[in-house]
Amino acid sequence: MNPIQRILDEFQLIVLDGAMATELERHGHDLNDSLWSAKILHEHPESIKRVHRDYFEAGADCAITASYQATVEGYVERGLSENEALKLIQSSVQIAVQARDEFWTDMTATASQQHRPKPLVAASVGPYGAFLADGSEYRGDYKLSEEQLMEFHRPRMKALIEAGVDILACETIPCLVEAKAIARLLKEFPGTYAWISFSAKDEQHISNGESAAACAKWLNEHEQVAAIGINCTLPKFIPSLIHEIHSHTDKPVVVYPNLGEEYDPLTKTWHGHTCTETFGQSARQWYEAGARIIGGCCRTQPQDIKEIVAWSRGV
């Protein structure tokens, strides 16, 4: 069964986790690397497990794995074999599942499971631009065909699915052609579901300039797409984007934006100011606008997820 719908049939909102990389940096890891958090997956997997646990304890109903920038090509460039790369990608699921199961067992022992579902593990599938590590996931200007993008995504998606993930999180997608490639690929894996979330440049358009409404309308016809939405985007754009998507699909809308700063992919630094409202206040507005799966992306922390949980458990 569609794991998103299964939870939403019983609960009004699914709370996602927040940033993985931000927490890893806060714990002292250097992520200034083309592999980003995928580097830590290779070198310090125990740190990733700790971050997953922190988000579960904050109240998250879903952990997103540290596989966003983990690709066969990226690891092979670092000297791993293709088989070693695939096993490392699969370990991102195994780490998150272990963290989830240990957390849920502890919750059972303390009879603290009321008002929340058993958390999901969503395998992050970053865009082709994340592998390039040049910021093109915020432009969508790489010139690949649908078939070429399918070839790129197939090995990682297959590995993540075979590792036993609950759902795929195909995220920060900057162009419709890449979403189409992923939707076509899903048909090769019957019974597998994914959400597809785009990065956006303004209140109406995804990163390469295509309309969010058009993307939602096209994806609405694909049964294995469990939810459609936006991530890694400025919070100020989110209410309008929810409206654009919600008006063209009957699927749940997923949003998990950044904290409000803007990212410079050349210097790999953040600039500007965080949103003036607390993240929890903003998230409540997104819920009222129609979003039903809400969390945080870059720069967010467990405290931000706690703020969402503080009001959402009562809806």
Could you explain the architecture of this structure?
With 315 residues, the chain is an alpha/beta fold. The protein has one domain: Homocysteine-binding-like domain (TIM Barrel), CATH 3.20.20.330. It has helices at 3-8, 21-26, 37-43, 45-58, 72-77, 82-109, 128-132, 146-162, 176-186, 212-219, 238-246, 279-289, 302-312; strands spanning 14-15, 62-64, 120-125, 167-173, 194-198, 225-231, 253-256, 262-264, 269-271, 291-294. The strands form two sheets. Strands 1-10-7-6-5-4-3-2 form an eight-stranded parallel sheet. The chain has a two-stranded antiparallel ribbon with strand order 8-9. Helix 3 (37-43) crosses helix 4 (45-58), helix 4 (45-58) packs parallel to helix 6 (82-109) and helix 6 packs across helix 8 (146-162). The mean pLDDT is 91. InterPro entries: BHMT-like, HCY_dom, HCY_dom_sf, Hcy_S-methyltransferase. One of its GO terms (molecular function) is methyltransferase activity. Keywords: Metal-binding, Methyltransferase, Transferase, Zinc.
